[in-house]
Design goal:
The complex is a heterodimer of chains A (363) and B (292). In chain A, strand 2 and strand 3 form a beta hairpin. Chain A folds into three domains: 73 residues, no CATH class; 209 residues, no CATH class; 31 residues. By secondary structure, chain A is of the alpha+beta class. In chain A, helix 4 crosses helix 5. In chain A, 39% of the residues are buried. Chain A is globular. Chain B has two domains: 192 residues, Bacterial phosphonate metabolism protein PhnH (Rossmann fold, 3-Layer(aba) Sandwich), CATH 3.40.50.11310; 44 residues. Helices cover 28% and strands 18% of the residues of chain B. Chain B has seven helices and twelve strands. Chain B has a seven-stranded mixed sheet. In chain B, helix 2 crosses helix 3. The N and C termini of chain B lie far apart (43 Å). Classes of the chains: A alpha+beta (363), B alpha/beta (292). Chains A and B meet through helix 5, helix 10, helix 11 and helix 12 of A and helix 2, helix 5 and strand 11 of B.
Chain lengths: 363, 292
């Protein structure tokens, strides 16, 4: 199933064909011809932004929203909002059963690189032939490889840097369920991580982009590791108290580092270690995890700056948590469609009164 | 697909299958009620709560809806208005959702209602101490205009540090001899916190002072509630030598002739005219006057 990144054309083609075989949050059900099969990454995006991993329901939501991502996310979130939380399970991202792992920072990391399913290197040529639903137009449709019977669990590539004390200390991340909290503002890194994992994909990417394009002078980011795979989920058995594996979810995680030298308020160089950023998302929309890691790193770095240092939006946790939730953003932008004639009459009253004042002033 | 028209034109409440009475589950109701109790105990305090995703979009009254559904009881009579109007689409869908998930009575007469959910207005009829008014709040924090960072604004409220609002008001008066605040006028509650009077016009603000009814404000998107308990001082902030101005209208209502109501523009008999935004009260006054 795994192909190293160093193989040439065969790897690229096999990697692209593997995406055909991959379905959104694959759970063993045949969903040929369904929305889930047609647009698996869209299902992944909707599940990630909703913060709900339930592929069949997400596919229904997309259908019922006629393909409007925001509405599909809304349907999914409000459906799950009033369902009881039956239990919690803390999972470690190092337990991911890896299906894809790339380490741009290291050519040969411990455990190796695995290209897995990806369209990254496949040419972007629109195929105008009518192809069956869900299929890329490719002559060769045979299976790429037999699934590996043994799950592949690998160490984090960042460990190498941590062991050499090259990563600056970060705030610890206690898991926080934002859906049961009032606000992510000022609620710490755990809440910020949950917020980022559900943030709107386009907004997340745009803000991460503003941070990347600042250039190496500000903070040079390097992607240390991107991994995609399945994260096993265990719960405590109510009778025996033993952990029981109840399933697994498809996730993508990213770790990246910023190179910059921390300067304190006296102008002294105080820390030359890398700032680590971490991002995770349900599903396989990889730019979500990369963008989240970028913003996490920027906020962490800004935290270490002397108080009063100016922050661009990408570094300002307060700014980010008020802007990046897709439901809050689309809901409030579109509420402008609602009637506003009462408040507008109040605006008009002031416009006329102020205008009168300005005219009187001029006379 | 006639779900929407079914919802809007149904004769009897429809039971919404798969959902609980008043839509919310018990844990959600408890969360919202706890926040509301705290909000009532600390008048004007912006009280955070774990806002649920509702079957309406965020920013479309999800906060007001949560407050309504967490406080409603079977004996309530519900009125829902948007812009003062019971029949606006938004008010109708909201009312249908509340009525269908609970089976409570609905009313358009504010005097008959015990629970009134409103967007942008306070009904102009006299309300008594049996009434609970639920406001849909778009922007909960009066400091937002001056301080966008929630953590900083929170600290300013805690310290009652409202210098930026006063300074803004001072600059307005220095430049224009009047305040630029239109709707959502900032008001001090019982000598303590300053609140935003959600986008109700200044016209409605004096109604909040020493009001016999309980006012609950719900901001779903911003995950906050605040409250004005009955018989509480609500003072629009202004300098002692500057009067608080409400919107003024130079004509009576073109439909009912009222000279004491908030007017918005409408086409009446083919001509642009100013008419009451409180449509239920306007219709009643027209009926009382009899056909012209």
């Amino acid at each position: 199933m795994y192909t190293t990144v160093r193989e040439s054309q065969n790897a690229i083609d096999a990697s692209a064909r593997l995406t055909d075989q991959q379905q959104a949050g694959f759970d063993g059900h045949d969903r040929a011809g369904t929305v889930g099969a047609l647009v698996p990454l869209l299902v992944d995006q909707v599940m990630a932004e909703a913060g709900v991993v339930e592929p069949a329901v997400a596919a229904k939501a997309i259908e019922q929203a006629r393909g409007d991502v925001s509405r599909a996310v809304s349907l999914l979130r409000s459906w799950v909002s009033c369902l009881p939380r039956e239990g919690t399970s803390v999972v470690a991202c190092s337990d991911i059963e890896v299906e894809r792992r790339i380490t741009p920072a290291f050519a040969e990391p411990d455990g190796g690189q695995f290209l897995g399913a990806s369209l990254d290197y496949a040419p972007r040529l629109l195929n105008l032939d009518v192809t069956p639903a869900g299929g890329r137009a490719s002559g060769d449709t045979g299976p790429v490889a037999e699934p590996d019977p043994e799950p592949l669990v690998l160490p984090r590539a960042t460990t190498r840097l941590e062991e050499q004390d090259l990563i600056a200390a970060t705030e610890s991340t206690e898991p926080v369920d934002l859906t049961r909290r009032a606000s992510a503002a000022g609620a710490g890194r755990g809440a910020f991580q949950h917020f980022l994992s559900r943030a709107e994909t386009g907004a997340l990417t745009a803000l991460a982009y503003t941070a990347v394009r600042e250039g190496p002078k500000q903070a040079d980011p390097t992607l240390v590791e991107l991994r995609a795979g399945r994260l096993p989920v265990s719960v405590t058995h109510p009778r025996t108290g033993n952990p029981v594996r109840v399933g697994s979810v498809a996730v993508t995680t990213c770790e990246l580092v910023l190179y910059h030298v921390q300067v304190d308020s006296s102008g002294e160089h105080t820390d030359s270690r890398f700032t680590l950023g971490y991002g995770a998302t349900a599903g396989r929309v990889e730019r979500r995890a990369i963008s989240a890691a970028m913003l996490d790193a920027r906020v962490t770095r800004a935290h270490a700056n002397p108080p009063g240092t100016a922050k661009p939006p990408s570094d300002d946790a307060d700014w980010l948590v008020t802007a990046l939730d897709g439901q809050e953003a689309t809901g409030f932008v579109e509420h402008l469609k609602l009637a506003h004639h009462v408040s507008f009459a109040s605006d008009l009253d002031r416009v006329r009164a102020l205008g009168e004042h300005i005219r009187n002033d001029e006379e | 697909m006639s779900a929407l028209s079914d919802l809007l034109h149904r004769a009897e409440p429809i039971h919404i299958s798969g959902y609980l009475w008043a839509y919310l589950d018990a844990a959600s109701k408890r969360e919202i009620r706890r926040a509301l109790l705290k909000a009532v105990c600390i008048p004007g305090h912006i009280t955070p709560f774990a806002s649920r995703e509702m079957p309406v979009a965020r920013g479309w009254g999800s906060g007001g809806l949560q407050v309504t559904l967490a406080t409603i009881v079977a004996s309530d009579t519900v009125k829902v208005i948007d812009q003062g109007d019971d029949e606006s689409l938004n008010a109708r869908t909201m009312r249908a959702l509340i009525a269908d998930s609970t089976g409570v009575e609905t009313a358009t007469d504010a005097r008959a209602a015990t629970l009134i959910q409103t967007r942008h207005r306070i009904p102009e009829d006299d309300l008594d101490d049996r009434t609970v008014l639920v406001f849909q709040v778009p922007i909960s924090d009066p400091l937002r205009e001056f301080e966008q960072r929630p953590t900083a604004a929170r600290r300013m409220h805690a310290e009652r540090d409202y210098a930026v609002i006063w300074l803004g008001l001072y600059e307005d008066h220095a430049r224009f001899s009047r305040s630029r605040f239109s709707h959502s006028y900032p008001c001090e509650v019982e000598g303590g916190y300053i609140i935003s009077t959600t986008p109700i016009p200044r016209f409605d603000v004096p109604r909040l002072h020493q009001a016999p009814f309980l006012s609950l404000f719900g901001a779903g998107r911003e995950a906050a509630v605040y409250a004005i308990p009955p018989y509480t001082d609500v003072t629009p902030i202004t300098f002692t030598d500057r009067e608080f101005e409400i919107e003024s209208f130079d004509t009576p209502c073109a439909k009912c002739g009222a000279e004491d109501s908030y007017l918005t523009e409408e086409i009446v008999n083919g001509r642009r005219a100013a008419v009451c935004s409180d449509t239920a009260r306007c219709r009643r006054r027209q009926a009382e006057k009899g056909p012209r």
